[in-house]
Amino acid sequence: MIKGDYMKFYQKIIKKPWTYVVGGIILAILNIILFWFSGKTWRITSGFLYWGMGILEKFGLEHSNWYYFNVYGNELTKGKTFFNNEYTILNLAVILGALIAALLASEFKWKKIKSKKQLVFALLGGILMGYGSRLSFGCNIGAYFSAIPSFSLHGWVYAIFMFVGAWIGCKLLFKFLL
Amino acid sequence: MAEVRIDCMYEACPIPLIKALKKLNNMKIGDVLIMETDHSCSITNVIEWAKKQGHEVDYAEVADGEWEIYIEKRR
């Protein structure tokens, strides 16, 4: 390839963000392929739930009698463990893939923590998101992106209230935090 | 013509845009807002948003992976 062509390819494919339409179509195709081959749709926080359960178990905490797992079960595939399962691989692969994309686009950068306030709110936000995602059977991937194509009504309910939540969150940010 | 600086270093979307929106509300026409950011998405979304609002926008990379975005309030 001559140099001009390569630069054009680099700018268009590697460096610049893709459009939402292209990204959406690729994600949809990948999710179909994943479902086809593994019988599972893409989920994120289920993997973190399993890690949390696995860690608690290592500390000797008995969680199989918890109300949550008695009502909903943990849906772990037969023969898989809390650490060795599909979602562990998917979650690690997402981070690895994002790292490769960032490195190729020379966008990689270590970010500092700005202040104690940022740290506290980041932790609080993370805990709220984790808590909420388990009550709604997933985050915006498991309970929205994977639910709607499965013709599950709960994906649509999730979508409506995700927008309501984001709107309220923005108002709170604007009024109290910035 | 006043110059206002906002520090958006180490902050991710949508914080820089909301901070800019809030600051611009209290500024006079002709004033310049200077945003310091290290978030590459801000280079796209803050600039796109400010242009759509009808403001004059420019930016410069002041250090490796650190930018200043200049927004002149027009309306």
Automatic annotation (TrEMBL), chain A:
It comes from Paramaledivibacter caminithermalis (strain DSM 15212 / CIP 107654 / DViRD3). It is a multi-pass membrane protein. GO terms for cellular component: plasma membrane. It is found in: Cell inner membrane. Pfam families: Sulf_transp. Its main location: membrane. Keywords: Cell inner membrane, Cell membrane, Membrane, Transmembrane, Transmembrane helix, Transport. The chain crosses the membrane at residues 20-39, 87-108, 120-143, 155-174. The keyword Lipoprotein does not apply. It comes from the Bacteria. Belongs to the TsuA/YedE (TC 9.B.102) family. InterPro entries: Sulf_transp_TsuA/YedE. This is Uncharacterized protein.
TrEMBL record, chain B:
GO terms for molecular function: transferase activity. Residues 5-73 form the UPF0033 domain. CDD domains: SirA_YedF_YeeD. Transmembrane segments: none annotated. Keywords: Transferase. InterPro entries: TusA-like, TusA-like_sf. Belongs to the sulfur carrier protein TusA family. This is TusA-related sulfurtransferase.
